Protein 1
Amino acid sequence: MDELVIARSLFGMTMGVHIIYATLGVGLPLMVLVAELMYQKTKDKDYAIMATRWTKGFAVLLGVAIPTGTIAGVQLSLLWPGFMEAVGRVIALPFQIEIYAFFLEALFMSIYVYASDRLSPIMRIVSVTLVAIGASASAILITNVHAFEGTPAGFDIVDGKFVNVDPWEAFFNPSFIVTAGHVTVSALMTGAFVIASIAAYKMIRLKKGNTREYKFHHKALMMGLAIGGIFSLLTSLNGHESAQQLHAYQPEKLAAAEGLFETQTHAPLAIGGFTDKEEREVKWAIEIPWALSYLADDSFETEVLGLEEFPEDEWPPLFVHTLFNSMVAIGSLLILLSIVGFVWYRVLKKGSFPRWLMWAFISAGPFSMLAIEFGWIFACTGRQPWVIYHVMKTEDAVTTSGNIGLLFVLFLIIYIILMISTVLVLRYYFKKNPVAREIDQ
Amino acid sequence: MSEALYAITLIWGIVFIYAVMATIDFGAGFWSMIYLNKNNTKATSIANRYLSPSWEVTNVFIVAIVVALFSFFPGATFTLGTVLLIPGSLIILFLAIRSAFLVFSHSATEKYKKILSIISGITGFLIPALLIAVLPITQGGFITPTEGAGQLDIGALFTSFNVYAYMAFAISSTLFLSSLLLADYSNVAGDSEAYTIYRRDAILVGPISLVMAALIVLTIRTEAQWLFENLLDYTPWLIGSVVTFFIGYIALFIPRKKGTGIPRLAMISVVIQYLLASYAYGSAHLPYIVYPDVTIETGFTNPATFRALIITYIVAFFILTPGFIYFWRLFLKDKRYLKQNES
Ligand code: HDD
Ligand code: HEM
Ligand code: HEM
């Protein structure tokens, strides 16, 4: 197989694994912080127990988030030396500042976990807050590089060399704010829904509705749903802005996402279906007339560029349409789910949720994680064949040293081992220290 | 001083800090594995108490080195990234296993705890051996020129005495520095039993590491002539390094009211020993990053990027230092932490 394809698969696999742990690494600290604050406010010991249990889970996940992140960082230089040379000249700042965010998180994470018994309540809250800030900051900063790849800025190219470099202009590239916002709120949403999933699952297993343990999980579920609901709304509002950014800066990506071949005003929005390259249409899709033009720039008159405007060898792969649809569908359904949960509990004042709704809650966490994966694959593959949009092709950035096939297999084995052992360790730990026992203490 | 020289000095500083922290970190993992079965000593729990809060902070330094290299010297990234594909990938694979299993071993069943500690202990001393192999690679002689950035000649690498000398030095230093720190740590914790064990280990491996260091210099002479000649200019530093080694070593035998040896003095002078030696090595290596193709001038980044980076370093220094001090006080000085029972 082509070395480029193997290199992309290897890097994509690394990121696909890292992103699972990293997203929870951003989402869980916020949940821990809210639990700590609730505890200080209500003095209800359940919240303190939630904070310690989630921190424990978080610490185990970090055991994989950090090494896979280290792999990602080193692999960037090993697999894409051409790209990283450009990064070093122009967009080194976010990587560098991210290091400081890592330090912040690593220091206060250790302090919060291993010195919590010696900390005052204020210092505990300060420590978790700094962990949450560190985690979000590292996500935002790495996303900055990703945004730069899509909307490069802050340099000129003369004779193949980068000149007139302005690192801060590169840092504040056009899509930075919107993209970073999207990554952050989607991670916070996912962290909250994962907590809600686990709580709902425990409640279904317990069946009886009035034990202490059942109430404990009920509180966790409500917290997860409330925070997840808020952030799913923010994610979709901001996702809409992301799409408008694409219209402005990467039109061929939007065209591929929508399967739009012809340039037109009053462009329709295609939902579902599969893009057919030969017949130049999206098959079996539901079309909403005019909607795409309106979404792209708030007016039906907006002209949306179709793929026909671009040379075919620069088209992104067309399956990104499906990825984009799935991400948006999951986002919309989860907002709906939060609203149903809220109405059921607060407006209809029913004491407990029916079984079908509980199963929907259980699915929320896995589905948001899927949306994260879809989003990243869409964003990165949708940029192909460019590694830096209209500046550097991925095939020109790839390493020339060969032997990547073997490495792919080695890393695959390691990732399988790591993922399986994470599940085993978490299961074992929480079985050995059941909630029931901690509540009774 | 030129801007490139400032930048390489900064990177040298980060590498030095990482080298010391990582050898202690990896070594502590190793000792915690070795003394796992001896239920009557607290040597393992002392090692774990150091390791648990510190490995994550240590790990950030290796990421910091990689980032500093490609930010300050993007011109070197292309060559280094290409030739280090295989060794670099092995390092990060081992690092992943070791970090993950270290964390897992704190939460696992007794049955698996042992195997997890063993795996993370063994990978822990393989990593320094692989990491240090980067040094001889940058000294030249192992890169076959091709039309791109060159190709690493793995066969030559594994038949070079110099490379083996480096590896043996890395392993013995890992064990030496970590046993010294743990001796000091158990001394502060007032655990005389663990202290005796780690002091004995330090006394055993100390001379080995010194011999290995000498072996590196000898093999550099045959395999990287240019570096050896430059090193001769720094002979006073190398002598100073040997002297501080002996000060540190003798400090382990000075009698006190309770027990023998002043581990704090030993630790400090041995760190100075490594500081002097690595200063000499680093200076002799200049101006090359990778001999003979990449120098600090040809690899250097844009001046605008350089200045922006330096500003972030300065700001971060002021923001992070209080955090480091707080961390230090909680885990390395607070007797309540050091003395607590196994947790
Ligand atoms: C919980 C996860 C999640 C959910 C529910 C959504 N997204 Fe998303 N999306 C992401 C997680 C994500 C992400 C992982 O954070 C991405 C990948 C890269 C990025 O910038 O953010 C992303 C990228 C991304 C992009 C590409 C940006 C680019 O290529 O630069 C667009 C246009 C959208 N999203 C739009 C939406 C819309 C309209 C949603 C409506 C509900 C939506 N997303 C829900
Ligand atoms: C090319 C992309 C990425 C690279 C190179 C990368 C690199 C890294 C590295 C080196 C670490 C380990 C830091 C340490 O030693 O402590 C790490 C951890 C982490 N990353 Fe990633 N990362 C990437 C993408 C992301 C994304 C997209 C997110 C967020 C959604 C993210 C969030 C985190 C978090 C939360 C951690 C763990 C906690 C920490 O130490 O900050 N990373 N990453
Ligand atoms: C901001 C940091 C990031 C950088 C610098 C980056 C860079 C790259 C590069 C160089 C490639 C290989 C070439 C390519 O196919 O595009 C790639 C592909 C890929 N990236 Fe990103 N990426 C980043 C963030 C992420 C994150 C966090 C994910 C999360 C999973 C991700 C998912 C993928 C996937 C799945 C691929 C492989 C798909 C493909 O072949 O295109 N990316 N990215």
Protein 2
Amino acid sequence: MIEICIYGRGGQGGVTLAELVAHAAILEGKHAQSMPSFGPERRGAPVFAFLRVDETERIKVRAEIKEPDVLLVLDPGLLGVGDVVSRLKKDGMTIVNTIKSHDEMKSKIEANKIATVDAMGIARAVLGLPIVNTTMIGALVKATGIVKLESMEAPMEERFGKVAAKNIAAMRKAYEETVVS
Amino acid sequence: MKKEKVVGLEGSFAVAEAVRLANTDVIAAYPITPQTHIVERLSEMVAEGELDAEFICVESEHTAMSACVGASAAGARVFTCTAGQGLELMHEVLYIPSSMRLPVVAVIANRALSAPLSVWCDHSDMMAVRDIGWIQMLAENNQQAFDLTLCAYRIAEDSDVLFPAMVHIDGFYLSHVIEDMSLPEDEEVAGFIPEYEYPFTLDPDKPVSMGCYAPPFIYPEAKKAQEVAFESTIPQILETWKAFGDRFGRYYAPVEKYRMENAKIALLTMGSCSETAMLAIDELRAKGEDVGLIRLRLWRPFPFKEFREAVKDVEVLVVLDRCVSFGMGGPVCSEVKSALYDQQKKPHVVGFIGGLGGRDILIEGFEYMIRSALEKVKAIERGEEIETEMIGVRE
């Protein structure tokens, strides 16, 4: 089982991200569970969403993820808010939306593996909006292979209808541009 | 076996699917966290023509249940849903359909009660309605939320039952979680819930008054009849769950057992934390400990026979309550003890309270309860008095 914490701000779409990837994993025949950090969401406040995917076993644990395999950070400003990176499992990975270079982030983040992408830049260029959740799915898929990129299309089409194409394009661009090491 | 497809579905949407597949005639509900997604999805289904039902927009839960009572008495198949404070506001009216034998179906996204205000899950709302005379059952995952909601209609409307039925789905843990589950094709559900024919439908040509007035010379007889009828619903509940299992391959029981073979220690849970508890049992079994898990699926009527049977060879029974009965401990623990009181051979019962107001109970929490219970049993055997422990509370 892979456990992912999505760390963003209320309104950035972290819960939607978790739900879309869960749907894609389930369409691939895997077991998945998406769970919001429960409670009334406040726009702009730091907020978690949780995602578990298991290739073979039904997911039984039903609680927030305390020690994730992957920390997906939608807003780089949140890296300094709360002691989130240290909660990663030993071989865990941090995936960050950042305008900084991969090497600079690598020196800043104490995680074995990191992945970086300028998701905000991509979202502004492709979607015309500063909303990075669908873009960051591209980074997540590149860094973890948790689902196939094409498996994301059906859930995004169902969720977004006419604007799905732009979101899929942003996701694909992020997939290409994400650097992992 | 019937044809089903595996889908990713939020617990709330799974409930809404069951309500749609049951061809519900009337829905009266008021949105409240964490039940809101059920109402939203149902109102969308009605607006989009996916479900040919009357959606009554009400101004409160008190009115929601009142509308359900009226619609059910008029012969409609009726659904409502609420949570926490909403169930409390509904409370006065909840006794009406059970006493008038109206088979309303309700789903509760269990939530703690104020104050302090909490939208998060515990079983305080459920325990506050334990005496209302509704059939009550609990789901542990989204699949069960769907299955049990569908079954609730068939149970409630059975002509030998005619009692309202309530399905408890833990708020957020089920209502807001998307997970994989099997959803039957529409045509596969057809016929599972028979056409609803309420035998005492309100009729303008034959006016009657229902439930209006009972002076002392008749009220106790009405209550005795109600209690006798209510207690005798278990065979019909079992019949529906058997029919559901034969059709869809998932069988339900009033008391569900997990790894109880030769178990000397049993943990008792209810609702969404039960599958996490299974993982704790797996870990303890791997260490060679004789532990197992039992879950109360049916809460009302209380399944005395099945419960006593499940614990007959158990030496220590560890009971988790997600609710405080102030001044009394845990309500489920109290009931379990009373169910065992007259038994010649009975386990030590050790109660814990945990998971209040949405506090997660992790695998370690269940392992702690079991270890701690064994220490408490030693103290009991030394003649000491044991208090109900609230786990994971900072002091």
